[in-house]
Amino acid sequence: MILYTFGLALIPYVYTSWRLISALTLFYPKHRRSFRIGIPLIFILFNLMPVIAFIFYLFGEYRSLFFYSEQFSTYDIFLLYPYWISLIIIVESFPYILASDILLLISRLFSLTIKAHLVRLLALLKIVLFLFFVIFVPIRIYIDTNAVAISTYKIPIKKLPPEIEQLSLVLTADVQVDRFTPQGKITRFIKQVESLSPDIIFFAGDLVTDGTHFIDEGIRSLCRTEAAVARIACLGDHDIWSDANRIAQGLEQCGWEFLDDRHHIIERDDKKILVTGVSFVYSKRISPPRLNALLESAPEADVKILLVHQPKKMIINAASKYDYDLVLAGHTHGGQIIFKPFGLTLTPTQMENDIYSGVYHQNGIPVIITNGIGMSLVPVRYRAKGEIVQIKLINQN
After folding, report:
1. What is the spatial distance between Cα 329 and Cα 357, in angstroms, rounded to a whole number?
2. Contact, 260 vs 279, CB < 8 A?
3. Per-residue pLDDT averaged across 356-381, rounded?
4. Given the DSSP bridges, would you call strands 365-369 and 358-362 parallel, antiparallel or unpaired?
5. Residue of 10, 59, 346, 391 with fewest CB within 10 Å of its CB?
6. What is the mean pLDDT of residues 352-364?
């Protein structure tokens, strides 16, 4: 994925470099040589990480450097973060620089005087826009990577008993503890969960990012959360890639209910809430026949909730078919990296999921997807803050 993103970014990098050199040379012609050498050199230095990654890959040491490192290192500071931050800056500024060049082509329709003024104006605009993103992107990354927001959604349920309507439900996912997770962020996460006084906490999988070094820390973090009635978790992709059994056992020892393709009934004042935990991840995908059999065998309940890691349409459609009231999911990180060229919302997550953050209504059933807390592949968040979701069920008249 790192090499793939690097390949895709080559054209924006080359084009942006070329146009910035042209714009700066227009105002400072005496420094043409310095711009021609300096700007490409800066871009090359910020992109050393993919080159080193490829070299390590050839010698079979890629995973030890990029995935299973247990300590934050100088490599992260001088190679990893510069690569991703500069990539976001380039992707953000590229559409506007390209648009200014399109305007420049249109200017050929005007007189030479107007064209000359427009050339200088658009050159200045390119410089200003690029400098804006050079400042804006790192600040926004710092804020969004460290923030944990609380979102509250009201979900109408038909014939909802008053006893259940009073419950406070909390959804979280993708804590993904790793070397990039500061203890302060975990502490804020736990305090914010506590501030919601949850009756039931749902965890939609992915406790750690990789390896087994951070499993105990992740388990301790979730075990510190408290719920008056129940805490329920399901399996995530990274749980399997790490050690799913160890994670499940660790959570169950401190009172969590870990659901792997099975049902769980919560009783509240003679009323019943059914939670069905479905394992649908890259390495373990429940088949449609087995999913239908599982949901068809669900016991009767006043409210039926399906908890899953990946919010796939097959899962959502099956939940709707068997009269579930709500689907809860994670996995998407809310996009994690979101671009907004000219007000449009674009994120790599859309290549896999057209629904990725917030509340959706799919096939007659509400689906809530939380941004989660941690990161995957890219060690930053941008325009997609970490999130805890508070759910309030209300009676639908």
Report:
1. 10
2. yes
3. 95
4. antiparallel
5. 59
6. 94
Asked whether the beta carbons of 206 and 372 are under 8 A apart, the reply is yes
How many residues in the chain?
397
**Domains in the chain, CATH or no CATH each:** 2-144 (no CATH), 148-396 (3.60.21.10)
Encoding tokens for residue 339? 């671009």
Which is higher by pLDDT, 294 or 268?
294
Contact 76, 379 (CB under 8 A): yes
| pLDDT tens-digit map of 170-187 | 999 999 999 999 889 999
Closest CA to 167 of 48, 305, 307: 305
Name the token pair of 245: 């059994």
Helix (H, G, I), strand (E, B) or coil at 292: helix
How much of the chain is in helix, strand and coil states, percent to nearest 5? 50, 20, 30
pLDDT score at 63? 59
Structure tokens at 383: 């325009």
Q: How many CB atoms lie within 10 A of CB 269?
A: 9
Cα separation, 135 vs 152, whole angstroms = 32
Rounded Cα–Cα distance for residues 265 and 274 (Å): 5
Residue 182 CA, distance from chain mean position = 17
Q: Is 67 helix (H, G, I), strand (E, B) or coil?
A: coil
Q: pLDDT for 307-331, tens place per residue?
A: 999 999 999 999 999 999 999 999 9
Residue 269 or residue 224, greater confidence: 224
In the chain, the amino acid numbered 315 is I
Instruction: Return the percentage of the chain with pLDDT > 90, whole number.
Output: 80
The confidence band for 119, taking pLDDT boundaries of 50, 70 and 90, is confident
Residue 164 CA, distance from chain mean position: 31
CA angle, residues 257, 263, 265, in degrees to nearest 5: 75
